[in-house]
Amino acid sequence: MRRTIGVMAQSLALGLAEFRNLYSLRSWTIGWLVRMLAQVAFFGSIGLLIRSRAYMQYLLVGNAVVIVALEATIVVLFMAGERFNGTLQLLLTTPTQAITVFLGRGLNWIATGVVTATITLILLPPLFGVPVPPLRLLACLPVLVVIGIAAYAYGSFLGGLTLRMPSLDWLVLNVGYLLVMTLAGVNVPVAYWPAALRAVAQLLPVTHGLHAIRGILAGGQPGAILADVGLEVVVGAGWLLAAGLSYQWFIAHARRRGSTALG
Fold first, then answer.
1. Is 96 exposed, middle or buried (0-12, 13-18, 19+ CB in 10 A)?
2. What pTM, to 2 d.p., does this model score?
């Protein structure tokens, strides 16, 4: 266990170093945070156009929360990068658990996603005339973390696919994220979709966590909110298991063949 924690910590440190190399505070603020604020404001403006205060809040909250999933699934790109950088072969020949390294690879994106979503929920709703009560927003923070972890597990599974098809990393990332953004209740209620798509939505991260956050902001029943959070945890655990099995299959296949090439 101690060794596993140590490997995870070192993997996280590598991810943080890459993040610092990618962004300074200024470039993150201007190049990422402002972009996310503009994206959420765009969807919020739809509520302005149709003059619906309730729908405006629905759009602002949904698109702010889904930022956590967007950032968490960025791990897809860094897993594909292991092959492009030539480090995957070295990783697979070491005696340590490669799965631990893969899962620790982008944990920092959960934290930055929660920060970005929180800042968005603080700044934008008041500008649109639908402020979020501070105490209720504070109660949403643990749920945002749960959503981030579930989305990271989902992104790790998608990252396992890019280990096999690294040239498709952006396609896998965008399709995976847009599937969540479309079906998880971000812009329209899950009930809007046909039964088959509603069933798919139940298996995606964000769906249950976002419903819990909407319940918190509306002053809903604690029991119902906790049930939604519990479902988000179950969904995240399912994707984590799927990611682990996917990595194990890929690693076993690569070691058996003596190559990371497919076929």
1. middle
2. 0.88
